[in-house]
Design a protein that fits this description.
By secondary structure, the protein is an alpha/beta fold. It has helices at residues 2-9, 28-41, 43-54, 101-110, 128-131, 148-156, 165-176, and strands spanning 61-66, 77-81, 86-92, 115-120, 137-138, 146-147. It has seven helices and six strands. Helix 1 packs antiparallel against helix 2 (28-41) and helix 6 (148-156) packs antiparallel against helix 7. Strands 1, 2, 3, 4, 5 and 6 form a six-stranded mixed sheet that branches.
């Protein structure tokens, strides 16, 4: 599956130069799809991500989806939890946040008391109006958003005695992209 995503991302004309494998530009949607697929197959890793981001251990995830069209926009990852709350994770690789992107998702989550997080490869300037909504917008100590390296560490330490080949493959994929 990861080979499929990689090839899909690398379509180019004959005249285009070979892409720099160290810098995955414009890969956000395909990387998001690959991440959602992997997490849907490794429920212990998905639960670990939800617990780490939300700080809540009593409300497990029941499903994960991508690119869900909502009136407030199209969030990258939407994780439904047993209580009905949603965790929206906006994924960025090289792109900047869209116009009021986090603010719009924040508004949509006020109704169900869900959570919002940003996962980015590089520094993103998160608006103060989002940062002050700590009960909804989640971020790690000392930073305004999560990094792909955080996801890598969570997945690598997700537990279970036998690490699945898919987990190993996903971790190698993140390493190949420089996101470890």
């Amino acid at each position: 599956l990861f080979v499929y995503f990689d090839r899909r991302l690398r379509r180019r004309t004959v005249d285009e130069p070979e892409p720099d494998h160290e810098k995955p530009g414009g890969w956000e949607n395909a990387l998001t799809e690959a991440t959602a697929f992997y997490l849907s197959c490794d429920l212990s890793a998905l639960a670990k991500v939800v617990e780490y981001v939300t700080g809540e251990t009593e409300d497990p995830p029941v499903r994960i989806g991508t690119q869900a069209r909502e009136p407030e926009g199209i969030p990258d990852l939407v994780i439904q939890r047993q209580s009905g709350k949603r965790l929206i994770i906006e994924c960025k690789v090289d792109a900047d946040l869209g116009d009021r992107q986090l603010e719009r998702y924040l508004e949509s989550l006020k109704r169900d008391r869900g959570h919002l997080a940003l996962l980015s490869r590089r520094f993103q300037r998160v608006p103060e109006s989002v940062l002050i909504c700590r009960s909804i917008y989640r971020f790690p100590e000392g930073r305004d958003h999560f990094a792909w390296e955080d996801l890598y560490t969570l997945v690598a330490n997700a537990g279970s005695d036998s690490v699945s080949p898919l987990r190993n493959h996903f971790l190698r994929y993140l390493e190949w992209l420089g996101l470890e």
